[in-house]
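DM from R.C. (forwarded with permission)

"hey, sorry to bug you on a friday — could you get me a structure for this? deadline for the figure draft is monday and I only need the backbone to look sensible"
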Amino acid sequence: MTALQIIILIAVYFLVLMTISHFTGKNDSNTDFFKASKQSPWYLVAFGMVGASLSGVTFISVPGWVEGSQFSYLQVVLGYLVGYFVVALVLMPIYYRYNLTSIYEYLGERFGPVSHKTGAFFFFVSRVLGASFRLFLVAIVLQQFVFDSWNVPFEITVVISILLIWVYTNKGGIKTIVWTDTLQTLFMVIAVILSIYMINRELGWSFSEFLNSDELKNYSDIFVTDSFLNRNHFIKSFIGGMFITICMTGLDQDMMQKNLTCKTLKDAQTNMISFSFVLVFVTFLFMLLGALLYIYAGQNNISIPLMDGSPKSDLLFPEIALNSGLGITLAMTFMLGLIAAAYSSADSALTSLTTSFCIDFLDIERKDLSKQKGLRKRVHIAMSVVLVIVIIIFKYVLSRNVIDSLLVVAGYTYGPLLGLFAFGIISKRKVKDKWVWVVAVFSVVISAILGSIKPENLGGYVIGYELLPINGLLTYLGLVLISRKQNERTS
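My reply, with the result:
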């Protein structure tokens, strides 16, 4: 597939998204931008959330990760499933009871303004980094397979990517996202299914023959139970996955904003539980695809592409889809899937960052009504610029597999959110609100120190995704120290 063909495909794709944006953004009100007027059908939200949750990270990075981790990522995904039930049954009732626009308003209601802004700040950092990770992936693929041949700098590639997202989310916001995410998820799922079918056909296999092949057995180990010291031991991965979901979905404005557009709590809970099972199934398909890619690469002497002189496993799927001679259909399928996966998470991230900053930091709902829309639009532009800057920085500092990097960073940035919400829900005590930010920062610092300890200093124990609940526990304990009973005065 030539660079020009890829550009034409992207242009047509975004023309479709902008058409959807035209119809969903006619009102251009803050109510539609932030809440979609609470009229979203639950089944659209559920299906669209699959694409937003998986994103370009799963589309490229999970298949590329299979050689090093085999199917052990499924241990984390099974933990996700339990986490989604916690979100649906514990957190959602709270958000609907308080009728929240930003979920961090709950912290303000429960503890005070400092807690509110502390929670919003950690979301802001988490989502900027998470969205940048995801967009970085699609940007490096477009750079490697399209723009390098035209001598277009990486920085321009990033600016174009963010600009396209800004254009179709500028008016409709979350109302547009609910519909575009549904379309993008459909493209992504079709892409992975067709990719598995076409590569199997090239290898002369049926799907059942692939599942029963000796070659697949070399990549398909799921459960790691031999030593608890291992970073990806089942218990550590499962518990880590559960807390990752509670934090990265249930305590994340990006993911919860879509759910809060459902008409009722029951609709939102039905959406969340339905979506969780679909997500597990689709993620398993991605891992099957990853094994298939390595099998095909091995049989056809295809090397993992280099980036800055080092092998980059995230680029194996695009290399096979675009450059291995498997035909224009697979190439187009891959590009549509990649674009859909990447932008289905990035567009909602940009919208949620705008929403959180307007509600949590600027208190936009108390501003003069005539100025609210203009302020929202300026914040939307500012958030776009922030994402551009962070993605460009990633090009020079990021070296490890992107999905692994994303989950590691989550352990630091989402931990304080976990501790804050857990304390608010479980405990009946009040906290000294002005000290909450100190507790949160202190917990991150201690977690960072723990995460940097070498395994040989811990008897061979490798700290993995369990760092997230540890961080949350540290925050919780810190809040206990600065708390008092409800009937006592706080200062």
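R.C.: lifesaver. The longest helix spans residues 265-299.
me: no worries. The radius of gyration is 22 Å.
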